[in-house]
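In response to reviewer comment 3 from the previous cycle, which asked for concrete evidence that the modeling workflow produces usable outputs, we include below a single protein chain processed end to end. The sequence was submitted unchanged, and the resulting structure tokens are shown without manual editing.
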Amino acid sequence: MSNHSLAKLDPGRKKTADSKNKIRAVALRLFVNKGIKSTTTREIAKRAGIAEGTIYKYFRSKDELALELFTTNIDVFREKLSENIENKDEPKEMLDRLIHNFFDFAKSHPEAYSYIMDAHYTEIKKIPKDRPKPKDLFVEAIHLGIEKGDFRKLDENLGAALVIGMINRSILFFNNGFIHSDYNEMVAEVASSAFRALGV
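The workflow returned the following structure tokens.
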């Protein structure tokens, strides 16, 4: 059924979805630009063109909105990281794809990426420990690589931190104009450096 048909059949549902999505989009932009703490629900409402009370129809608080945005975006991020990983029995291939997918996500979804990185320090603690997280994919690949003898022996979480740290700092430096290499050249260099750090 098309969106047009859905709107004709249930305009109230479409209006609700539109309002909620607008709140999410505006809040995400403000949280990235100003931070969660410095953003008010009044400001979100003003930018979204709605009454402040409308926000509370969908979210009990600004904190709930911030957490929902965080969990939604890390789920999308994790899904994007998993794309085109055809053989999970080959840790080198898996890790290489994860690194490239990470860079691709940061480039194609800059606002979502920035929010995940900025909000990570406060929001990650609110998520159940057993909930799948993006970093788990790196830990899995490195653990498998150590077991197969492809990577040197080290704590797989430390290995994941080293690799993810290289990626994040490179993106930060690139976005701030400190790295003048072509983006794809940078990705290739980071991937090569990550494998060297793992003893390949």
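Residues 1-7 have pLDDT under 50 and may be disordered. We consider this sufficient to address the reviewer's concern, and the full set will be provided in the supplementary archive.
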